[in-house]
Structures are given as C-alpha cells and as structure tokens.
Amino acid sequence: MSSKIQPANGKLGVMVVGMGAVATTLIAGVEAVRKGLAKPIGSLSQMGSIRLGKRTDGKSPLIKDFAPLASLDDVVFTGWDIFPENMYEAAKHAQVLDNDQLRTIQPYLESIEPMPAVFDQHYVKRLNGTHVKKGKSKCDLAQQVRSDIQAFKEKCERVVMIWTGSTEIFLEPTPIHDNIEAFEKALVNDDPAIAPSQIYAYAALKEGIPFANGAPNLTVDLPCMIELSKQTGAPICGKDFKTGQTFMKTVLAPAFKARMLGLSGWYSTNILGNRDGEVLDDPESFKTKEESKLGVLEYILQPSLHPDLYKDIFHKVRINYYPPRGDNKEGWDNIDIFGWLGYPMQIKVDFLCRDSILAAPLALDLVLFLDLAKRSPELSHLGIQEWLSFYFKSPQTAPGLYPEHDLFIQLMKLKNTLRHIMGEDLITHLGLEYYD
C-alpha cells in the first residue's frame, strides 16, 4: 500500500440525494452483500481484478485487495428525499427488488429515514415533493444542507455525497457560475440559474466532501464548483450514470472505429416506466438527458479525423414514458453501418435491461473510489477525477480537453490511475519484451 494514501479507518458515511429506485437498490444491495445473501455483481471495485507487472508474473489481485478501499462493512447511509417514506417503503414503491428479498433486510431498510430535501418544482415539473426544506433563500437552504452534513460527520470518519435524484430541466452556465464569490452572491439573491443539485454540490464541496452526480444536471461542471473542489480538496467527477443504451454505444462505436467501418445513422429509442421515465416525459428534463446521450458518438468516432466514415451521421435519441415497464427499461437501437466499397449493413440491438440494477453497482464504485481519491494526496486537490469517466455518459475533463468516451480507454485510465497512486508500473500492453 502506498504510504502517502491515508488508510480507510472507521466508518464511511454515504449521503444520498434522492432515495428512490437507484438509492434503495444500492442500499438494499450493500446490506444483502454484507449479510452474505448476494454477490456484488456489476461492481468493479468489489469483483474486478487488476494486473500488476508482466503477464508472465501471474499477479492479478482483486481491486479491493490492492487499493485501500473502504470495506462494505464500514459503509453507513443517510440521505434526503422529497417523500417521507423510509427505505423499505421506498424500495417497495420502486418495485425493483422482489418482496421476498426485501423482507430479509427489512429492519435495516426501515431504520433509514430520509431528511427533508431541497426541492423546487420549477426544476422537475412532473414531481410534487411533500417532504421539503423551507428557507428564506437558496443560501439558507445550502446552510441547512451543510448542517445536515456536519451532524452526519459526527457519526463517521469520512463522508461522500452522491446524487441519485431526478433529472432537472436543461440549464446552461451563466456569469453567476464563473467563480465562488459570484455563486455565493447568487445564492443569497435566489438566482433561478441555481438548481437544487447545485445547492447540494456547493454544500458538499464547502464541507470538503466528494460529490458524484448520477443525473445529467448542470451541477459540478461549472467553473465555481471546480474552483471550490480544488480549494477544499473534495473530488468531483462526471455526470449521468452510464447504464443501458449509452453503455452499449461506448462498446460498439469503438469497435466500428477500430475496424474503420462507416456509420450513416444510429436511431435509439427507450421505454421505461419508473419515476425517471415520468420526469423525462417533460420536454425540459428530456433536453438535459438528450444532451448527455448525444455527445457520445461524436467524441468516440472523431468525424473531423475520419470524414469519409463519420461526417454525416444521423443520430436520434428518444425516451418514452411507458408505465407498465416500470424499472425494466428497454433500449432499442437501429444502427446503419457501411463497409468495403461503401456496401451498407445493419445492426439491431434490443437491450431489455434493469435500470437500477445496472446503476446501483456504479454508484457503489463511485462512492468508494471518490473516498480513495479524497485520501490520496496526488488526487484530492486536482478537483476533477477524469479517471472515473468509466462510469458516466458525460465524463468531466479539464476545461478545453475533450472527454474519452471509449469504455475500454476509460477502463485502462481507471486501472492505470490505481497502479500509479499505489506505486506500481503502468501497463501499456506493448509486450515486446516477451519476444526479445
């Protein structure tokens, strides 16, 4: 273990914003794994391995045994929600996990009750919160969230915050986001450019705790938040969990580019019936999600470098609210590609996925890796943790730097970052030494 990294001693507190389908699936899942009732499938931090040295060395420990990650036994949860139900009631309402499974951990889930949330229906039109904070201004609300964090800090050694709430309406940066001073003044003035997710992120970063954003909202991808993150040594990363359809795009598009196959069109449609689907039925919230989904292909395929193959792609994304499907989302893709001499071909993908089942292990990994980054002197004051791009539809990068969306480049970046902070050699996959 690198002597510079602080050990993961004591409890790691996880503060979850929005305790709906993803949050309850995460929390119930962690407890089920701790009780030996299930395996943490889908979690790279828990089940993934990492090669060290040469292939002939045969050293590939589990990531959780290699890096000083917090143990699941030391993770404790709290959070906020706009509805007052405890985690057991919320999980039953979400209908992701079956009742028999929930009953095995019912007392634990019932013990977690959400705090009142910061909420304004202007930013999420389709929800009507009843369990919400009242305040004289957005500054007052931010102070209330900071008080919640400070109270929770007394019960654990370290804290991480993660947004698993709904998609807010589409917002663009304004001058109030240019620096911390302007943002704090705008909080006092109740500026409409400050959405609830920004209030949570500001409170977290002011308290020096890492923040992850599971939705496509404009939250920490702002100059003022990057500045604050660096100042307080509270790591931040990208936004919008990469779960279903976009996950498939970041697998397939690199394959087309690797083989220099052309792409003329990619039509994507989704049906889902959970609260996320209901929120995205609002055009303003859908625009936020659409922006997050549409950028992926352009960054991976680089049409300016390969105009003959990718300059005129027709890329369409649709999301349709369909209540009977619940959390079991269906992502359908029609992909029109072309090959040698321009001959056309088609690929059809029908991914019948479970949205929260895919998202929960990503949320767990982010919490554990952000906590590691906070304890790593080389990472904590960088602000943006680009090595965590693996988990997001919209990776965050240094200003002016294009993001890597290719899933396999992202995975190499993540593992090499772990090797780097642990003092191990980076792996380039050159392999010439085997043939000397």
UniProtKB/TrEMBL annotation:
* InterPro entries from the UniProt entry: Myo-inos-1-P_Synthase, Myo-inos-1-P_Synthase_GAPDH, NAD(P)-bd_dom_sf
Q: Name one GO molecular function term.
A: inositol-3-phosphate synthase activity
Query: Where does the Myo-inositol-1-phosphate synthase GAPDH-like domain start and stop, copy by copy?
Result: 244-356
Which ranges does the record mark as transmembrane? 12-30
Identify its protein family: Belongs to the myo-inositol 1-phosphate synthase family.
Name of the protein in question:
Putative myo-inositol-1-phosphate synthase
Q: Which domain of life is it from?
A: Bacteria
Q: Which organism is it from?
A: Acidobacterium capsulatum (strain ATCC 51196 / DSM 11244 / BCRC 80197 / JCM 7670 / NBRC 15755 / NCIMB 13165 / 161)
Q: Which UniProt keywords apply?
A: Membrane, Transmembrane, Transmembrane helix
SUPFAM superfamilies membership = Glyceraldehyde-3-phosphate dehydrogenase-like, C-terminal domain, NAD(P)-binding Rossmann-fold domains
- Please report a single Pfam family linked to this protein: NAD_binding_5
Q: Which GO terms describe its biological process?
A: inositol biosynthetic process; phospholipid biosynthetic process
